[in-house]
Design brief:
Layout: E1 5-8, H1 13-21, E2 26-29, E3 41-42, H2 54-70, H3 88-100, E4 108-113, H4 126-138, E5 142-146, H5 153-162, E6 168-169, H6 176-185, E7 188-192, H7 195-202, E8 207-210, H8 216-219, E9 226-229, H9 248-251, H10 255-266, H11 270-273
Parallel strand pairs: 1-2, 2-3, 4-5, 4-7, 5-6, 7-8, 8-9
Length: 278
């Protein structure tokens, strides 16, 4: 398509090679992974880049780009928290969709996302998600909805089989647009480290996100409405998609580690209290 410029957010060598082979004249990125010679504009890494969130890692790249190519003296990073706006019409459509599938939308909706299609190592145990779901339904004021992509139907079905009470499973039944609207209607989202964990706070819904093999300091949801739960182990973060040993980073997270803050979040004024002894 005769692109004029490629801004490489991924640090992969292959990403730079592809743009080089495509003949794109301006190629901007960090000179990592032995790819410096493929870039026309090499942005130096900041000394503390391994200790900052990826949002700032990418924003620094864009700021340098605007400075070098656009002449900007200073680029502001003010309020970089991502936000998604869902119209009232789409929210009504999401609630109607859930009601048609048996969700009592008059109760507090808790959306549970037990899958992680690109990494089995990031998945918490189905039976523990099930125990959390049962504890939530035993309260008597909640509806539990399992979501996910078509590739995650099996994990949602495993959670459903382990539950004593019946959740509503819509895994694989929604478009991305409908999924976002459902998340915006929820009182709380509980998720592995995957896309839903980032979308939920962007639409204003609190999320409890379980981290194991990945680096939460760099990739946690960029929001003050996200509560990260992880159990530090010597081998994490390993960034593996499959655990070669005993999955201790995820099995170390107990059911009560999730239930306790979930209950606090669902109670009146619970957001501040969710961080106490969680």
């Amino acid at each position: 398509r005769r692109y004029d410029m490629a801004v490489l957010l991924p640090n992969a060598f292959g990403a730079a090679l592809l743009t080089f082979a495509a003949g794109i004249p301006i190629r901007v990125g960090y000179p990592t992974d032995g790819r410096a010679w493929l870039l026309t504009h090499r942005i130096p890494l900041r000394p503390h880049w391994r200790r900052e969130h990826q949002v700032y890692f990418y924003l620094h790249l864009i700021a340098e780009l605007e400075h070098r190519l656009g002449g900007a003296e200073r680029v502001s990073f003010a309020d970089p928290i991502p936000r998604l706006t869902v119209s009232e019409e789409r929210k009504r459509g999401a609630l109607a969709f859930l009601a048609e599938r048996g969700v009592d939308v008059g109760r507090k909706i808790v959306v549970v996302n037990p899958g992680a299609v690109n990494s089995r190592a990031k998945q918490w145990l189905p039976e523990r998600f099930a125990a959390v779901g049962d504890a939530l339904l035993e309260r008597g004021d909640t509806s539990v909805v399992l979501i996910g992509t078509p590739a995650e139907r099996a994990i949602s079905e495993a959670v459903r089989r382990h539950m004593r009470y019946a959740p509503v499973v819509v895994t694989g039944e929604t478009s991305v647009e409908l999924m976002v609207a459902i998340l915006s209607c929820a009182r709380l989202v509980i998720s592995n480290d995957t896309g839903a964990a980032h979308v939920a706070p962007a639409v204003g819904t609190p999320v409890i996100v379980l981290f194991g093999p990945t680096e939460d300091l760099a990739t946690r949801p960029f929001s003050d409405r996200a509560l990260v739960i992880r159990k530090p182990v010597a081998c994490a973060p390993c960034m593996r998609r499959e655990c070669p040993i005993d999955h201790r980073c995820m099995t170390g997270i107990a059911v009560e580690d999730v239930v306790r803050p979930a209950f606090r979040l669902l109670d009146e004024g619970g957001w501040a209290r969710a961080f106490v002894a969680s």
